[in-house]
């Protein structure tokens, strides 16, 4: 079963001191574009998070965000008393210089100033590290499930579009049977009007056969059918088992399908066939758009 590059996963784990929530979301991209948003107190775990994500998500625009909630009464930061004293002294000097009264509420003024709080820089607790790893692992498991669900939607979409193209390809057969006799009759009718010109009838028959053979689309129809079968084969069965790394291959197959459909259009020389070819192109363009989301 194909996987989509679009997905979302969340993982939550707790240590004695912290509750850690990790969310991972991904969108389609040609390569792996990984961004991590981790609180500064746990920044040193970013490398570990990247090493866990890269082999699982493989490809896509992926963003990991972690939120840390403090449990209990332990304070994650303290007041920067030195900075607060310096701020208060400078404000008092400015008030005297300008002749304005001191603030009525010093707390509200001082605590809004930069560096009023000083973050604690204690070493990470092993329990916190373990909780972070578990939250990342759970989020990864959930995003894989999310990608699998989205992948099945894509799978059913492709099945439907390939079936539509196969049906349209079958609709070409009646036109194909009538087209060659019509072309031949039209050419012979036009030649019959050239009464003043003598020509070799045998050579004319050879040229007609050569021209009509160039308009034959049997090979294109066979190759298109083969490409569609290969597309379905590459997607794999609908067995609920994740199968990654086929997105680019499906894109290449879709390009080959497009070449055969374009050749059918250029050789059709028939308004009815050309209308069918246009509808086939429309179905194929929808496939190409969605193939970009396949992992």
Description:
The chain has 295 residues and is an alpha+beta fold. It folds into three domains: 7-74 and 126-146, GHMP Kinase, N-terminal domain (Ribosomal Protein S5, domain 2, 2-Layer Sandwich), CATH 3.30.230.70; 77-119, no CATH class; 149-291, no CATH class. Helices cover 60% and strands 14% of the residues. It is built from eight helices and six strands; from the N terminus they run βββαββααβααααα. The strands form two sheets. Strands 1-2-4-3 form a four-stranded mixed sheet. It has a two-stranded antiparallel sheet with strand order 5-6. The radius of gyration is 35 Å and the shape is elongated. The termini are close together. The mean pLDDT is 85.
> Shape, please?
elongated
Mean pLDDT equals 85
Cα end-to-end separation: 11 Å
Q: SSE string, helix = H, strand = E?
A: EEEHEEHHEHHHHH
Biggest sheet, in brief? Answer: 4 strands, mixed
Strands of the largest sheet, in order across it?
1-2-4-3
**Radius of gyration from the CA trace?**
35 Å
Helix tally equals 8
* Poorly predicted segments: none
Number of strands: 6
The chain-level structural class is: alpha+beta
Q: Estimate the helix proportion, in percent.
A: 55-70%
Provide keyphrases for this structure.
single chain; 295 residues; alpha+beta; Ribosomal Protein S5, domain 2; 3 domains; four-stranded mixed β-sheet; two-stranded antiparallel sheet; 8 helices; 60% helix; elongated
